[in-house]
Amino acid sequence: IITTKADDIRDARAHAIEFTTFHNEDMKVRVYGNVAIVTGRTILQGKAKDGSVVDVEVQFTDTVVLEGGRWRIVAGHVSRLKPKPV
User: Fold this and answer.
1) How far apart are the C-alpha atoms of 76 and 3, rounded to whole Å?
2) Which residues make Cβ contacts (< 8 Å) with residue 31, sequence separation at least 6?
3) Average pLDDT over residues 51-56
4) Are the C-beta atoms of 60 and 41 separated by less than 8 Å?
5) 54-84 burial: b if 16+ Cβ within 10 Å, else e
6) How far is CA 22 from CA 11, 19, 45, in A?
7) What pLDDT does residue 85 have?
8) pTM to 2 decimals?
9) Separation CA 63–CA 55 (nearest Å)
10) Residue 75 confidence class, pLDDT cut points 50, 70, 90
11) Backbone angles phi, psi at 62, to 5 degrees
């Protein structure tokens, strides 16, 4: 599924998911002049508006650019990781 910034903002404003857990782990930052690549994993848990349980782990890559003294995310990618064996 491809989403846009507008999609993400709409979902956040609509509280599409009420998160109980939303945190990053194993983040690594590589800086190349005024560009940085950030990778890591995000743990997401909560409940969707339809009552379904959300329990997901994803990996991400963000491309960040330094513009006017501020870092801005200009591109991002998220992939769901396979569930861990029980």
Assistant:
1) 10
2) none
3) 94
4) yes
5) beeeeeeebebeeeeeeeeeeeeeeeeeeee
6) 15, 6, 7
7) 67
8) 0.81
9) 26
10) very high
11) -120, 140
